[in-house]
Design brief:
The complex is a heterodimer of chains A (259) and B (302). Chain A has 259 residues and is mainly alpha-helical. Chain A has ten helices and two strands, in the order ααββαααααααα. Chain B has two domains: 4-220, P-loop containing nucleotide triphosphate hydrolases (Rossmann fold), CATH 3.40.50.300; 225-284, no CATH class. Classes of the chains: A mainly alpha (259), B alpha/beta (302).
C-alpha cells in the first residue's frame, strides 16, 4: 500500500476508536456547541462595538468564536492530550516497531482531527444559521472560510503535536495543554469579543499568537464587509505558526513513554 | 551450516557514563529459540531494543536478517515481529480490529482468525481491548507481532506478571511459533522458561555474557555432580561411603553424574539387605537456577 492508502486506513481506525472513547468524543464535540448556547444565552442580546466603530450582534459573533474554538479543541487540545496518552501507553512505540512509517501514522491523526474540526465548524454554522441569524457565506467568502478552517485546523494540529514534546507524562497533559491555550482563548476574541474598548495590551499580546489571527481570519471570511476585513495576512500568520509547529515536532516529538 | 538470522559482535551501549552493555557477541540461527537470561538491569532490554531498532548502539556490529537495525529500514521491519516488555494497545478497538489494523502494515500477513487462534483468543475476538485481562492483552501483544507473518520474533519478558497457568499457555504459544518455522529471540529472568523454551541460552550479567549453551549443559551443568539425599529411621545402621549428615538429620552424598546409577543401586541394595527404609529419597541434578545463581550472583526471585 502507498502512503495515502495507509494513512486513509489509519484514519478509519482512529475514527472507530475516537467514537468509542466517550470522554474524547464528548469534550471535543459537546464543548463548542455547549459554549455557543451558554454564551449566546448569557450575552447574546448585547452588541459588540467593533474597532471599525460598527455594532455587531453578540450571538452572531459567537458563531464565529465557537467555530474557532472548535478548530482549536479538535486539533490542538484533543490531539495533544490523546497523542500524549498514546505515547505513555506505549502505543506509539509499538507502532514505531512496525513497517508503518511514523509520518503516515501522524498524518492519520492530524487528518482525523481536521475532519472533526470540519464537522464541528459545520455544526456551529448550522446552529448559527438556524438560531442566531448568522448567514452561511457563499461564493468567494465560502471558499475563504474553507481555507481558514483547513489551514487553521492543520496549523493547530501541528502545534498540538509539537506541544506533546513539552508534556512530561499523560497526567500532566490536560494541565499543560490548557495552560498554553486557555489564556489565549480569553485574549484572542474566542470567548470575549475584542472590541474597540479592549485594553491595548490584550490587542498587542493577542496578535503575537495564532489564536487571534484565526479568529480574525474566520470573522473576516465568514461575515466579511462592511463589519470585518478578511486578510490573508492573518491566515499567513496562522500558517507560519503551523510550520513552526511541524519543525519543532519533527525535531522533538517523542515516540516513547517518558518515565 | 544454518543461516544466521542475528549476528552480534562486541556490542556496546553506554548511557552517559554508565556502560549498560559492555561488549557482547552472539549469533542466532534460523528456526531457533534463543533466550537471553539475566537479572533485571543486566542489559537484556537494552540489547533487545538495539536489535529491534529502538536504540542506537555505541559500539560493535549488529546484523538482523542482513540489515543494520539502527537504520530502521522498512524492509527489515516488514520481516520482524516485536513484543515489547510493556504492552500498549488502543483500548477501544476489538481483538479482531486490532489484529487487522496491524496486519495491514505488512506486505504478507497471516489470516486474522488464524492469528487469534494461535494466541488463544478465539472466544474474545469481538471483545474490546480494555475488557481483556492482563494476560489476554499480553497474548494479543504476541498476536499483533504475528499479524505480519514475521520470520523473526522478539519477545521481551513475555510472561512477566503472569500467573502459572497463563505462563504455561504462553509457552505453548511460543512452541506453536517454532512449529511453524519462526525464529524467536526471547529475554526472560525465569529459569524454567528458558529451560522449557530455549534451544540455546546466553546468561548476561552486568552487561557481559557469562555463559552460553543449551539449557541442559549450560556452564557445565551436565558435568556437575548429582546429589543423592535420604533419611534413615532411628537406630538404623549407617551405609559406608562419603556421606554427609545435614543439620536437619538427612544424609547427603554427591557423586559424578555417570556414577549416580550405580550408587543408587548400591544404596537401595544395601537398604533392602538390612531391611531399612530410605525415607525422602531424592536424586537431583543441579537446576538451571543453581547454575544461574552461581553465574550471576543474583538473588532468587528477581
Amino acid at each position: 500500500m502507498n502512503d495515502v492508502a495507509l494513512t486513509a486506513r489509519q484514519v478509519k481506525y482512529t475514527n472507530t476508536a475516537f467514537w468509542r472513547n466517550p470522554q474524547a468524543a464528548f469534550f471535543t464535540f459537546a464543548f463548542p456547541l455547549m459554549f455557543l448556547v451558554i454564551f449566546t444565552s448569557l450575552l447574546g442580546k448585547g452588541t459588540v462595538t467593533l474597532s471599525s466603530g460598527l455594532e455587531f450582534n453578540q450571538s452572531t459573533y459567537y458563531v464565529a468564536g465557537m467555530s474557532a474554538f472548535a478548530i482549536i479543541t479538535a486539533c490542538y487540545t484533543n490531539l495533544a492530550i490523546s497523542v500524549t496518552f498514546q505515547r505513555d501507553q506505549g502505543i506509539l512505540k509499538r507502532t514505531r516497531g512496525t513497517p508503518l512509517p511514523g509520518y503516515d501514522y501522524l498524518a492519520a491523526r492530524v487528518t482525523h482531527a481536521m475532519l472533526m474540526a470540519v464537522i464541528l465548524v459545520s455544526l456551529c454554522s448550522a446552529f448559527g444559521a438556524i438560531f442566531y441569524s448568522a448567514k452561511i457565506p457563499t461564493g468567494v467568502a465560502l471558499l475563504q472560510t474553507i481555507a481558514v478552517v483547513l489551514i487553521g485546523a492543520g496549523s493547530f494540529a501541528a502545534l498540538g503535536l509539537a506541544i506533546t514534546a513539552l508534556i512530561p507524562n499523560a497526567e500532566a497533559a490536560p494541565a499543560v495543554v490548557n495552560a498554553t491555550i486557555l489564556p489565549l482563548l480569553f485574549i484572542s476574541g474566542v470567548f470575549i469579543p475584542i472590541g474597540a474598548n479592549a485594553p491595548r495590551w490584550v490587542d498587542v499580546v493577542g496578535r503575537i499568537f495564532p489564536v487571534r489571527h484565526l479568529v480574525d481570519a474566520y470573522l473576516g471570511a465568514y461575515y466579511g464587509q462592511p463589519l470585518f476585513d478578511f486578510s490573508w495576512r492573518d491566515v499567513g500568520v496562522v500558517a507560519l505558526w503551523g510550520i513552526a509547529g511541524i519543525i519543532f515536532a519533527a525535531r522533538r516529538f517523542s515516540w516513547e513513554p517518558r518515565r | 551450516m544454518p543461516e544466521r538470522v542475528i549476528e552480534v559482535a562486541d556490542l556496546r551501549k553506554s548511557y552517559g557514563d554508565v556502560e549498560a552493555v559492555k561488549g557482547i557477541s552472539f549469533e542466532v540461527s534460523r528456526g531457533e529459540v534463543f533466550a537471553m537470561l539475566g537479572p533485571n538491569g543486566a542489559g537484556k532490554t537494552t540489547t533487545t531494543e538495539i536489535l529491534e531498532g529502538y536504540r542506537q548502539r555505541t559500539g560493535g556490529t549488529v546484523s538482523v536478517l542482513g540489515h543494520d537495525p539502527a537504520k530502521r529500514e522498512r524492509a527489515l521491519k516488514q520481516r520482524v515481529g516485536i513484543v515489547l516488555q510493556s504492552t500498549g494497545i488502543d483500548p477501544f478497538l476489538s481483538v479482531t480490529e486490532t489484529i487487522e489494523m496491524y496486519a495491514g502494515y505488512y506486505p504478507s500477513r497471516r489470516p486474522t482468525g488464524e492469528v487469534i487462534e494461535v494466541v488463544g483468543l478465539a472466544e474474545k475476538k469481538d471483545t474490546r481491548v480494555n475488557k481483556l485481562s492482563g494476560g489476554q492483552q499480553r497474548r494479543l501483544d504476541v498476536g499483533i507481532a504475528l499479524a505480519g507473518d514475521p520470520e523473526l520474533l522478539f519477545l521481551d519478558e513475555p510472561t512477566t506478571g503472569f500467573d502459572p497457568n497463563a505462563r504455561r499457555n504462553a509457552w505453548e504459544v511460543v512452541k506453536n511459533l517454532v512449529a511453524i518455522g519462526k525464529t524467536v529471540f526471547l529475554t526472560t529472568h525465569f529459569m524454567d522458561e528458558a529451560q522449557y523454551l530455549a534451544d540455546r541460552v546466553v546468561v548476561i550479567a552486568d552487561g557481559l555474557i557469562v555463559a552460553e549453551g543449551p539449557p541442559s549443559s549450560l556452564a557445565g551443568r551436565d558435568q556437575m555432580r548429582t546429589r543423592i539425599r535420604f533419611r534413615l529411621p532411628e537406630g538404623a545402621p549407617q551405609p559406608n561411603g562419603d556421606i554427609r549428615r545435614r543439620d536437619d538429620g538427612s544424609l547427603e552424598v554427591d557423586v559424578d553424574a555417570a556414577a549416580a546409577t550405580k550408587v543408587v543401586y548400591d544404596l537401595t541394595g544395601w537398604a533392602l539387605y538390612y531391611g531399612v527404609t530410605l525415607e525422602s529419597l531424592e536424586i537431583t541434578q543441579p537446576t538451571l537456577e543453581d547454575v544461574y545463581l552461581q553465574l550471576t550472583g543474583a538473588e532468587v526471585g528477581t
